[in-house]
Specification:
Blueprint: H1 3-12, H2 18-28, H3 33-38, E1 39-41, E2 47-49, H4 69-77, E3 95-99, H5 102-116, E4 118-122, E5 125-137, H6 145-150, H7 153-164, H8 182-187, H9 194-204, E6 212-214, E7 229-237, E8 240-251, H10 256-274, E9 277-291, H11 295-306
Helix pairs in contact: 1-2, 5-10, 5-11, 7-10, 9-10
Length: about 300
Amino acid sequence: MTIFNLAFLKVDSFKCSSKIKSHLRSEVNFIPFYARKELNLSENGCLKMVRGVSFIQSFKTVTPFSICWKLGIVLKELNLISFEHKNKREQGSMQQIYSRNPGKAWVEICKLIMERGEEVRDEGLVLKEVMNLFICVETPSTEDEILIKYGNKDEREWMRRLWLETKPIPAMGRFPVFEVSYGKRLFDVDGKNHVDWVINKLKNNPDTKSATISTLYPGEEKKTNISCVTTLDFKLRNRKLITTVFVRSQDAYKKLQYDILFIGKIAEMIAEKLGVSLGPLNSFVVSEHIYESDFEEVKELLANIAKI
């Protein structure tokens, strides 16, 4: 019996409705062939990774990794699984979050930081931090119910301007003045539109590995804020646009959700110009953090979400 069929057998063992089982079966099809070869069943009938370090403890406790990320997302949202987070991580190890949309990613990461983050003091401010975090959001341009209900409209508008406008962005609360916005760095660098350059590069060579934008300017630390999102990369694979960004530092409570949303909007625009579908947004974040001044608001957010 193949691993693919064993995955179906696993679905049949769940105590859930036939509609959910049908949904799960359809999601199994998204597990790539090379991934299915990596999967197996343990002696007690629980799925595990043959070469991985993560094992399913039971039908409701699992740590899915990237080779089965799509199935993992579905199972987690149906409350059939949960992520396991170790109290201590070896320095340099990368934690992973997989989510369908910006709002769900926002909540999961805030919860992770509040539960597992380590205290750091930076320029006199106390914060909790998780280092080396990989975030994969399946539909990054979707403004989901969580963002609509619990997001901050003023902060959303500030972040929209930061990403999509080319003029300087004034300070608002803890958000500093941005003399050079991300929009300026993407759409108007000395008169050159880097987003158009990416579109043309992908049109001319759909398999290119070089459709990459850097937001850093040499010597800019002397006159402006150093970009938190330093690199945006776009790949066309199987007529789907995959976006990957590198982030040196990210405010998980105030900015993460809107970084995802508006980078997603930019990727969506590129995908539409290319006539392809929008794929996931992958983020590699070195310092994902929440400031002490936001702790109580984050606790309130997580408590409200838990009631849904």
